Amino acid sequence: MTDCPDGLVRDLLPEYAHGVLEADDAARVTAHLADCAMCREELALLGQVRAALEKGAPVIDVAAIVRALPAAPAAQPSQRRPEAQRAARGWVSRHTWHYAAAAGLVLAVGSGIVWRRGAVDPTVRLADSSHVRAAAESTAPQAAGAEEDGIMFGGGLSDLSVNDLQALLGQMDSVRTLPSVDPESMTPVIAMTEGGKTL
Amino acid sequence: MSELHRDADLPTDVALIARWQRGDQRAASELVGRHAQALSRFAAAQGVREGVDELVQDTFVRAFNSLATFRADSSLRTWLFTILKRLLLDRQRAERRQRNRVELEEDHAVQEFNALDGLVADEAMQRVRDAVARLSPMQREVFALRVTEGLPYTEIATMVNSTEGACRVHYHNAMRAVKEYLSND
Question: A62 at the B interface (CB within 8 A)?
Answer without folding.
Answer: yes
